[in-house]
Each structure stands twice: as structure tokens, then as C-alpha cells.
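TA notes, week 10

Several of you asked for a full example with nothing omitted. So below is the full record: C-alpha cells for the whole chain, then the designed sequence directly under it. When grading your own attempts, check the secondary structure regions first.
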């Protein structure tokens, strides 16, 4: 029995829904990266994506020779008590993971709910 349904993945992390008793639990999304797992609601994933986008706009490197690995900074999360130390490249990877997750969730909702005849 498959216990998860993958939503999105990249080389840095993965997002998925848990499955319990053959029922897909879509009220929360498991997001795992940097050996850390978050079990967020869709709204928390959206909030985290906004935080990451703001941090990306402030800290995006411009193509120097260090390739986004020269410094680390604290990335806030939707959990007030948790901040993550990430490099600029890790921030890019987290940004991709969250955007890909939200895109897939929104697309599936559109296809399965809005487009039903």
C-alpha cells in the first residue's frame, strides 16, 4: 500500500500528501528539505512561499564566481519559533519546491473540481 502521494520534488526536497486507511489526506502538505520536515496547511505553504520570495528579492546574488554559496542567512518560516540557516542556492531550491508544490496543488484542484462536468 502506498502511504504517500507525491506532489512535487526537486534535487533539494519533496512535497506530498499522506494517505491513511486508503484515504488521501489533502488538508495538510508534507514538505521535506534539508533533513527537515514541515506539515503545513495549504495556506501555510502559500505564506512560506511569500516569505521565501521576499527573502529571494532581498538576497538574490548576481552571478558572481561563488554561485550563490558565499553566505548564509536566516529564513523565517510560518512557524514563528523556527528559522532556517540557508545559503542563496538553498533559497532558490526552496523557492522552486514551494512554487512547484503550489502550482501542482492548484492545477489538480482546478482539474478535479472546477473542470468536472
Amino acid at each position: 500500500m502506498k502511504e504517500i502521494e507525491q506532489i512535487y520534488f526537486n534535487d533539494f526536497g519533496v512535497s506530498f500528501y499522506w494517505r491513511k486507511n486508503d484515504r488521501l489526506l489533502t488538508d495538510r502538505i508534507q514538505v521535506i528539505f534539508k533533513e527537515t520536515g514541515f506539515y503545513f496547511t495549504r495556506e501555510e505553504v502559500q505564506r512560506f512561499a511569500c516569505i521565501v520570495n521576499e527573502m529571494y528579492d532581498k538576497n538574490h546574488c548576481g552571478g558572481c564566481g561563488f554561485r550563490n554559496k558565499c553566505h548564509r542567512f536566516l529564513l523565517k518560516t510560518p512557524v514563528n519559533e523556527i528559522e532556517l540557516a540557508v545559503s542563496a542556492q538553498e533559497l532558490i531550491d526552496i523557492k522552486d519546491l514551494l512554487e512547484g508544490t503550489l502550482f501542482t496543488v492548484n492545477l489538480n484542484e482546478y482539474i478535479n473540481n472546477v473542470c468536472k462536468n
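The mean pLDDT is 90. Use that as a sanity check on your answer.
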